[in-house]
Design brief:
Layout: E1 2-14, H1 15-19, H2 24-27, E2 38-50, E3 53-57, H3 67-73, H4 81-87, E4 97-99, H5 105-108, E5 112-114, E6 121-123
Length: 130
């Protein structure tokens, strides 16, 4: 079995919401917030290769959000789901299974993608069982 961490980009979320009742003075040293109290978080998926299966656990945020969404959560970075998979030597058509741990947008948003050519929203992994 081979495990590969797949970087899918970064986003910003409210520090207070992320750390809950933990006082800001305790978390801001390791995760400094911006002036709007937003902290940067990495989004990663996990690629599991075993036998003839290529299993992707979570899919990151995806590419189909509107400008209002992007202004609030500020997805950024040069890493993308498809680009990171390609660097791992795996094309999206080769994924056999997609496992979504839960349905928060930053974990399942990449399960569907907006095709840049047609503008249509399609399954990101057409040969996978979700």
């Amino acid at each position: 079995m081979k495990l590969t961490s797949i970087q899918t980009g970064y986003l910003k979320l409210d520090g207070g919401a992320m750390f809950g009742v933990v006082p800001r003075r305790m978390w801001e040293k390791l995760n400094p917030p911006d002036p709007h109290n937003m902290c940067t978080w990495a989004m990663r998926a996990l690629l599991v290769e075993t036998g003839d299966r290529k299993i992707l656990i979570d899919t990151g945020i995806g590419n189909k959000q509107d400008d209002k969404f992007r202004a609030h959560f500020e997805p950024h970075g040069t890493e993308t789901l498809f680009g990171s998979l390609a660097r791992a030597g795996v094309q999206r058509e080769a994924i056999t299974d997609v496992f979504l741990t839960h349905l928060h947008f930053d974990h399942c948003g990449g399960a569907l993608w907006q095709n840049e050519d047609s503008g249509l929203v399609e399954p990101a992994f057409p040969n996978a069982t979700y």
